[in-house]
Amino acid sequence: MSTASQSPSPVAIIGAGLSKFGRQPDLTGRQMAVQAIRAALDDAGIAWSDVEVAFGGSDGSGLADTLVADLGLTGIPFTNVKNGCATGGSALVAAVNAIRSGTAEIALAVGFDKHPRGAFDPRPEDWGLPAGYGEAGLMVTTQFFAIKIARYMQEHGISERTLAAVAAKAFRNGAINPNAWRREALTDEAVAAAPMVNDPLTQFMFCSPGEGGAAIVVASAAAAQRLGARQVRLLSAVTRTRGFGSFEVFAPSIQGQGTPSSVSSDAARAAFESAGVTPADIDVAQLQDTEAGAEIMHLAECGFCEHGEQEEWIASAATEIGGRLPVNTDGGCIANGEPIGASGLRQVHEIVTQLRGEAGERQVPASPRLGFTHVYGAPGVSACTVLEAVR
Question: What would you measure as the largest C-alpha separation in the chain, in angstroms?
Fold first, then answer.
């Protein structure tokens, strides 16, 4: 039998670590990365010298491979990754593949960033776009997200009330997450009454560019057993880029005919197929919530409900911590901010915490068995994972 037709080698997450998220004027992005790595190593019960290969990156806070100056000069391969909001997810995929290929038994993925206040300010030339695209204001991501959700609301009957409810849930969950940036609960009414940024999205419906680091240690099944680690099984980790006909950040026009394609749908489908499970099997999920509308759209794009059903889901508290599919139990990007390099691995950290039953006040009841993570970003890239509790 060829290798391609065999099941992939089992991979376990044996360590997960975070720095604090939010404004930290006395720390650099690199320092937050080191904090996250050391926390992940401590969680795994290993030393930096036990790590055989590493992958990581940031959007604008330095090169991950230089972290060895702080961690120790062990000589391991350390590859820099930069893939937008999927940076952390892409680093994790690379670490998983290193384990599955037999290159290493213990690997590390890290993501980090420290963004200044204000909106992201990408240059159109860096994204293969003419300068006029930026001069027209189309590089301002808040405009794209507002355009996309406004169209979606019109097509599928989603109300502004539901937008406010999603954001308010994020703030409630952030208030009981000691590591979150935004720790003050807000009501639906306060979210809806906040200043309008780009119609229909108000200030409190958006996440903010933020600061933080996240790290994950993965290992082969044999290494995890040898170490006696508190493992969570990683069933799948995939990334995908946009296909023809998609409607994406920095490409907000629909090509072709019919319903636009979705890179999130493509990535989620591949993750579920690789894991051998369905969306209905998932007990707790992390979905990209750059703004409240994104979480709404991603519920359907990732296969958890039909388009338009989100209105009923949110009204019935289905995505609350005690609901049928708790979503963004740590407050998501809205409460934690978005340090681009770290967001995907923050999601994985939260699912690991939930599957271990260690989430404290925000713990999902009834011992969740399967978790899912999803990130989405410019210019149309998505990374998804499926994780399983080991008991």
Answer: 62
Expressed in angstroms, the distance from the first to the final Cα of the chain is 32
% of residues, the chain, pLDDT over 70 = 97
What does the pLDDT look like over 248-297, one tens digit per residue? Answer: 777 766 777 777 789 999 999 999 999 999 999 999 999 999 999 999 99
- What's the rounded Cα separation, in Å, for the pair 150 and 158? 9
Alpha helices by DSSP H, listed for the chain, are: 29-44, 68-71, 87-101, 131-135, 141-156, 160-175, 188-193, 221-227, 263-275, 292-301, 310-315, 332-336, 343-356
Rounded distance between C-alpha atoms, residue 128 and residue 232, angstroms: 40
Predicted local confidence at residue 328, as pLDDT: 98
Residue 382 exposure: Cα atoms within 13 Å on the Cβ side: 31
**Token digits of residue 187:** 């009501």
In this structure, what token pair is assigned to residue 109? 């993925």
- What pLDDT, on the 0 to 100 scale, is given for residue 179? 94
Residue 324: closest CA among 332, 315, 333, 313: 313
The more confident residue out of 34 and 119 is: 34
All structural domains of the chain, each given as residue ranges with its CATH number in brackets, are: 7-117+206-385 (3.40.47.10)
Q: Please tell me the predicted confidence (pLDDT) of residue 228.
A: 94
CA distance 389 to 356: 7
Alpha carbon of residue 124 to chain centroid: 24
d(CA 325, CA 286): 10
Q: What distance lies between CA 319 and its chain's CA centroid?
A: 17
Could you give the count of Cα atoms lying within 13 Å of 177 in the half-sphere of its Cβ?
32
Question: Taking the complete model, does pTM exceed 0.90, yes or no?
Answer: yes
- Give φ, ψ of 367 to 5 degrees: 50, 75
8: Cβ–Cβ under 8 A, 6 or more apart, which residues?
100, 274
* Residues 210, 339 contacting (CB under 8 angstroms): yes
Report the b/e string of 149-164 with b at 16+ CB within 10 A: bbebbeebebebebbb
User: What mean pLDDT value characterizes the chain?
Assistant: 93
Rounded CA-CA distance 322/378 in Å is 32
Contact 168, 186 (CB under 8 A): yes
Which SS3 state, helix, strand or coil, does residue 374 take? strand
